[in-house]
Design goal:
Order of helices and strands: HHHHEHEEEEEEEHEEHEEHHH
Largest sheet: 7 strands, mixed
Shape: globular
Number of strands: 12
Length: 340
């Protein structure tokens, strides 16, 4: 199966567990000739030699200071019809887009799952990029749009923090629960000016847990920390631990959206990757042979006939909508050309 582009919002504005997940729309049921297992191996080999300037990248995200020469021609054209402030907002939105690591649907169970993978249970909510810097905490959607700005107790997140050593900034990958005003921490890319993009998953997850043990005030809502920040528990991917986790009360009050499983050695490289897998709770018995509680099985959409059939039929529906949108866009462009 082709890889999912995997929007992982986690859910749309209405947290209805019976609606098709956004990532269904990216799934194509056809033979690519390369298995997920082969692509995982190649990516792990490739990341050893891949060295981007991650420190500068993290600093640019924190400060908003990006290469002004980028897309100059496009911006000059836009200046004819809009002000410079609007152009900058569009440029920043484009820059903050695609900064999260995205999963693929788990269609093949990894051969080394028990030894090399970790699991996080994900509550329903919106996937966000959270950046604390220059005395403010800003939240960006998956598409790069800034959706919130507030003070927080994250390093760099409020003006009352002492400057101290160097430049404070923190970058987190979160799921936001609107119901409970909680940012659940999935991953950590930077903390207090130190970047962890090129650290393996085991280290990043351990560091997240440690930082939130040391900084309990992040969990408490207050005037300078209006939203609670909480790490999500991490589980080993043994059948026993997966079964126990899915048959016990959830570690959050929101409904379960699904499972993310991470390869222990993967670095935080934004974009989709087969080294992070996604699965709905009710799909676990079918794919892994692990029984789950009746509450999760009741989340099955109406007419569910198995993973492969359901995902294919859902993609076909979305594909028709995409084609209709493309045809409409083409017609609009043709009309604009005719008008000129």
């Amino acid at each position: 199966a082709d890889s999912f582009a995997g929007s992982f919002t986690v859910t749309n504005s209405v947290n209805d567990v019976n609606r098709p997940h956004p990532r269904f729309s990216q799934y194509k049921m056809k033979n690519s000739g390369i298995s997920q297992e082969d692509r995982r191996r190649k990516l792990l080999e490739h990341q050893k030699s891949k060295r981007d300037d991650l420190i500068n990248h993290a600093r640019a995200l924190a400060t908003g200071d990006f290469n002004e020469e980028q897309d100059n021609e496009e911006e000059e054209e836009d200046m004819d019809t809009s002000g410079s402030g609007e152009v900058r907002q569009r440029r920043l939105r484009k820059t903050y887009k695609n900064q999260l690591i995205l999963s693929e649907w788990l269609v093949e169970v990894p051969v080394d799952m028990e030894d090399k993978w970790l699991m996080i249970l994900c509550p329903e909510g919106r996937r966000n990029l959270v950046i604390a810097s220059n005395g403010s905490t800003k939240v960006y959607s998956k598409s790069g749009k800034q959706v919130k700005s507030f003070p927080s107790n994250l390093p760099g997140g409020n003006r009352g923090q002492s400057r101290g050593r160097g430049e404070k900034h923190t970058i987190l990958d979160c799921i936001f629960s609107e119901t409970n005003s909680i940012f659940y921490i999935l991953d950590m890319m930077c903390w207090d000016g130190f970047q962890y993009y090129d650290c393996d998953t085991m280290f990043r997850f351990s560091w997240v847990q440690q930082k939130f043990i040391e900084n309990q005030d992040l969990r408490k809502k207050s005037r300078i920390n209006p939203y609670s920040f909480q790490p999500l528990p991490v589980y080993q991917c043994t059948k026993q631990q997966i079964g126990e986790a899915l048959n016990s009360p959830m570690p959050f009050s929101d409904h379960l959206d699904g499972l993310l499983i991470y390869h222990k050695d993967v670095h935080y490289n934004p974009g989709k990757t087969p080294l992070v897998g996604w699965l709905k709770g009710y799909m676990v018995p079918e794919l892994m042979g692990i029984q789950v509680c009746s509450e999760l099985m009741e989340q099955k959409p109406a007419g569910y006939g198995g993973m492969k059939t359901y995902l294919k039929s859902t993609f076909d529906k979305v594909d028709k909508l995409k084609k209709a949108e493309e045809e409409k866009l083409k017609a609009d462009l043709d009309s604009m050309v005719e008008d000129h």
